[in-house]
Amino acid sequence: MVEANRTVVIPLKIPEGSRSDFHQTILPYAYCQQEAVDHCWPDTPTRPDDLQTSKRDAESALYDRLREDTDELLNANLVQKAIKDATAAIGSCKTSWENGDRISKPDFYDRELPGYTMTYDKRAATYSRYEATFSTLTGTVTCRYELPAEIEGTPYGEYVLDRRWSFSTSKLVFDGEQFWLHAVMQRRFGDDPVYAPTSDDSGSDTHEDTHRVLGVDLNVDGATAVTSTGQFYGNADALNAYRTEQEQLRGELQQTGTRSAHLRFQQRRGVEWRYYDQYAHHVANSIKQEALRVRATHVAFEELTRIRKRISNLPKFQHWLFNKVQMYTAYKLERYGVTVETINPADTSRACSRTDCDCVDEDNRDGKHFECLACGYTVNADYNAAKNIGFRYLSDNLSNPAGRTRSSGQATSQLALVSGTLSPIGDFAEHEWVSTDKPHPQQASESSDSERSRVG
Ligand SMILES: [Zn+2]
Fold it and tell me: What pLDDT, on a 0 to 100 scale, did the predictor assign at position 230?
């Protein structure tokens, strides 16, 4: 497999008031960089080999301490990237030294330089074609790209907009005035695709004629993730119980007030957050496996800001967890060409998900039990929601075919579903792809009319 990389420099539009989020994040980040330099650079090196350049060694020696030193506030991946920046800088010093050049110890605190650079991999940032979201000390910041008036022929048009290229670990650069994304675009040649392109047209690797969507519903109780194929992943109830227990433990330690209690408090927090992070990875991995198994081209989630409205008082922790699950799923699936999308979740939990029924009613749902008042369809409520989420994505996508090069008449849209009856503890050996016309509002109302006359 051959890989190609291109760096595209893109000016960023920083939202009002968010510049300081980055200026604050660089402080612990530069601290980690400099600690790593100090670790790898002995007091008086006498030969190039005295310089340590192994990222792996530096990480295993420093990672835990730096996480603690930065109070776990700095994103774990940023700590790793800061260490990597340091070993990379020392690596180039070593090469210069071997070539007989004069070198000096890297100084990431150099205040003579007005700017800074932070390395963001795809677990600390989400990159899309028009904007990027970065994790900072105070939360995430989304920055739109400042695009050239004429895109054609620019590196942006050639690499960022071309779907054969995908984002790799990139750099956020502040030059003292302006923020830039040094986007590293990567293309793999000869990669064995998981699903074959649907057309035989040579020279074209678009597979956009077929949308195969896996809908995923995220929950604060029961299973954390439920798919439109009827799979249930994670145990939110057990997770919540663990959290309550940890909160009590931490509360006791905090009340003790001694220095050693404070240290144990910090350690506990580290253990705890690693546990949540692993949990998110586990759920995301399960979704990924399912998406690949059913050959999905898209995985659809609910938009998090909207979930917040749907689940009133959605705790910050759940928001954090859902965000991680979505980010990790996107990250894990990107290399397979499967994209993760989000939809407006309005009504997805109240609407009947049968394609021949368009009943939307609050009373359809009672906790985890869904029973359609119109057609009597009875099913697990989260599974019903997951199907609606998948349908919604198809609907939004079909009614808004912008950017599609072929006529949408040829497009087929499918939602991954199980056939047969569903219960949360079954084994669903038989899966099928269901094509649906539901996305078209007119057709939906036509079928509902016939449905009503049949029911009535
Ligand atoms: Zn119904």
Answer: 86
Contact between 314 and 230 (Cβ < 8 Å): no
> Are 179 and 234 in the same domain?
no
Beta-bridge partner residues of 379: 370
- Residue partners of 223: CB distance under 8 A and separation at least 6: 232, 233, 234, 235, 236, 382, 424
Ligand 1 centre to CA of 371 (Å) is 8
Query: What range does the domain containing 387 cover?
Result: 210-455
Q: Please tell me the distance between residue 380's alpha carbon and the centre of ligand 1 in angstroms.
A: 13
Could you tell me the distance, in angstroms and rounded to a whole number, from the CA of residue 355 to the centre of ligand 1? 8
Tell me, in angstroms, the distance from the centre of ligand 1 to residue 366's CA: 15
- Ligand 1 center to 288 CA (angstroms): 30
Cα 359 to averaged position of ligand 1 atoms, centre (Å): 5
pLDDT given for residue 418 in this prediction:
61
Cα(72)–Cα(20) distance, integer angstroms: 19
For residue 349, report the distance from its CA to the centre of ligand 1, in Å: 12
Model confidence at 394, pLDDT cuts 50, 70, 90, reads: confident
275 with 156, same domain: the answer is: no
Centroid of ligand 1 to alpha carbon of 237 (angstroms): 29
Examine the domain organization and report whether 216 and 350 are in the same domain: yes
216 and 185 in one domain?
no
Residue 423 has pLDDT above 90, yes or no: no
176 shares its domain with 236: no
pLDDT of residue 285: 93
Same domain for 214 and 175?
A: no
265 shares its domain with 351: yes
Contact 397, 382 (CB under 8 A): no
7 and 49 together in one domain: yes
